[in-house]
Amino acid sequence: MKGNEAIAHAVIRYGADGYFGYPITPQSEVLETLEELMPWETTGMVVLQAESEVAAINMVYGGAASGKAVMTSSSSPGISLKQEGISYIAASELPALILNVSRGGPGLGTIQPSQADYFQATKGGGHGDYHLIVLAPSTVQEMVDFVGLGFDLAFKHRTPAMILADGVVGQMMEKVVLPEQKPRRTDEEVRKQCPWACNGRIGGRKRNIISSLELESSRMEVINERLQARYAEIERTETRWEEIGTKDADYLIVAFGSIARIATKAKELAAEKGIKVGIVRPITLWPFPTEAVAKAAEGKKGILVVELNAGQMIQDVRLAVHDKMPVEHFGRLGGIIPSPEEVLNALENKIVNPKSEA
Amino acid sequence: MNLCDTMELEEIIREENKVYAVPELLDQSVHMHYCPGCSHGVVHKLISEVIAELGITDHTVGVSPVGCAVFAYNYIDVDWVEAAHGRAPAVATALNRLWPENVVFTYQGDGDMSAIGTAESIHAANRGENIVMVFVNNAIYGMTGGQMAPTTLIGQKTATTPYGRRVDLNGHPLEITNLMPLLDGTCYVTRQSVHTPAAARKTKACLKKAFENAIAKRGTSVVEVVATCNSGWKMSPEKANEWMAEHMFKVYPLGDLKDTTKEQ
Ligand SMILES: Cc1ncc(C[n+]2csc(CCOP(=O)(O)OP(=O)(O)O)c2C)c(N)n1
Ligand code: SF4
Ligand SMILES: [Mg+2]
To answer: Among A164, A171, A82, A72, which Cα is nearest to A119's?
Structure first.
């Protein structure tokens, strides 16, 4: 099953209440598959093609404000359009899931895979001091699994989560195990789980207000401090990563998403040459596995960060290891995916035997 | 002769003698921030009365705009979601589709509906979302200090048209409500005002019809209220009412523009 199609099945099976989207390559199959599956006939899930990404994210905001489990998906230019809404969702402390099957930019760019939205996803994206929980799948199975994980984390911490995929996992066909169909929560269950939500003052309860406006500076500071405390808690408890052969390696490659798989192939090629490489694959890009990278880097001779961009995650890797060892970047731009040989080459030329500068 | 001369105060203050009361849904514990004379307060009052009279308080959700009415959630005692500038109809779309038994209304200014939120407003109405869109058209951006709105009249002075709005520079006033009847998703489109008690009573009846349409899921109802912004217009409340009747009603004539409930 294609990654994008798998997402559609996973969302229905999670028991999500709504999906709002606008077509853009390379992720239109998410909406197409949902429309084909007609979940409103089975689980009662709402699916709506909005008039724009701006409308779609604001539908997500409305749905989330009412306590429902709602998501949107898009690709880079569309995700840019959603940023105001994402900032509102974060500020209003609402759970929601956003999928970015990212493509090459800037501008209209290319429809080919890219990881150039790392900064946008992990450093804020919209205005104000906020974070998204950012999950980076490297397989179609993880695309599926991160739907449930993303929603669960979003509801647990009342904050939006993003799946930052690249066009490779979106378009790739792989075998997947879909989760069992979960029932959608009943309205009563939603009301119980989300007593803060705006869905009517049933039983004459006090009115609920979802708003991110606070004109009084001292109160706005308190709100910001509350958000920051939550982010600190998420950093403490939700950091996820994978390590492959880091223990007895001399070098590290840090890579996320589909590129981590190419890096793993490069590691095998390196082993044939007697070069011992370990892989660290951040799964949560925010919170970034800073400590894990620092730990894995202990005693290593150098680190290559491989990304489909001009060097974004490398900043977080450098912050993790400071300047204890050389940290270099290798990336292809514009939608080109490097071969494992290219990655190995880069490792040899930039880290193992760096050419001294003339 | 004064009544008080012949009756004790306790005899007068009785439920059966009451001719006016603040609607129960208008929260009395907060001070309204609207300028004295502003139309927003009257519209709030009418909406509060309609919701209470229809008995839908416990399943009504309002969507407040970015604009002077942003704090509507502090005043009308129902659930509220505060939308980004212009996006209220998209927010309302989800609120209603995910809770179809709820009654959802948006409250939008002219900047909100006819400038930044044109797309969301037109498309929600075109989809026939079962919502009420209350559109308070005061021909200016009140909240940000009186700049030109798409609805600003030709010749009208604002902070960004200090010499008066000019067609060659600023285009024509956008009569967005006139577009709404063309959309098959709308069931009821009307333009009213609240400058006199009679006008306010009429507007209340229209709001009631609009909320009834939402309850009956007949499609989108749009209730425009041609309104004053005496602060933004730099006029006394009284003068603002006069100016509105003289100038705005010409461009935005009052009355029903569409009512499919009549045809049934
Ligand atoms: C994205 C965005 N752009 C601009 C603003 C600034 N802004 C706040 S209210 C407003 C105009 C409000 O005018 P209107 O909708 O007519 O409401 P009124 O205050 O007149 O009732 C503007 C431009 C904003 N808050 N958000
Ligand atoms: S600025 Fe205008 S719209 Fe805003 S409260 Fe004052 S009179 Fe009303
Ligand atoms: Mg206005």
So the answer is: A164
Say whether the peptide bond before residue A106 is cis (omega within 30 degrees of 0): yes
Segment A340-358 shows an average pLDDT of: 89
pLDDT digits (tens, 9 = 90+) for A151-181: 999 999 999 999 999 989 999 999 999 999 9
Spatial CA neighbour of B122 closest among B201, B182, B42: B182
CATH number of this structure's domain B36-263: 3.40.50.970
Phi and psi of B160, rounded to 5°?
A: -105, 0
What pTM was estimated for this model as a whole? 0.96
Q: Atom 8 in ligand 2: which residue has the minimum CA distance?
A: B38
Which residues lie across from B190 on neighbouring strands? B223, B256
- Token pair recorded at residue A298: 């202990």
Q: Residue A152's CB: how many other CB atoms inside 10 A?
A: 15
End-to-end CA distance of chain A: 51
Judgement on whether residues A277 and A169 belong to the same structural domain of the protein: no
The whole-angstrom separation of Cα B227 and Cα B234 is 14
Query: A31-53: per-residue pLDDT in tens?
Result: 999 999 999 999 999 999 999 99
How would residue A71 be classed by pLDDT, with cut points 50, 70 and 90?
Answer: very high
Give me A22's structure tokens.
Answer: 């606008």
Q: Which of B60, B82, B84 sits opposite A200 (nearest CB)?
A: B60
Chain B CB contacts of A126 under 8 Å are none
Which residues form the domain of A83? 3-187
For residue A147, being part of any structural domain is answered with yes
Does the CB of B57 have a partner CB in chain A at under 8 Å? yes
Mutation for A interface: B81, B101, B116, most A CBs within 10 A: B81
Q: What pLDDT was estimated at residue A358?
A: 44
ipTM for the complex shown: 0.96
Rounded distance, CA A120 to CA A62, Å?
23
B80 with A210: Cβ contact below 8 A: yes
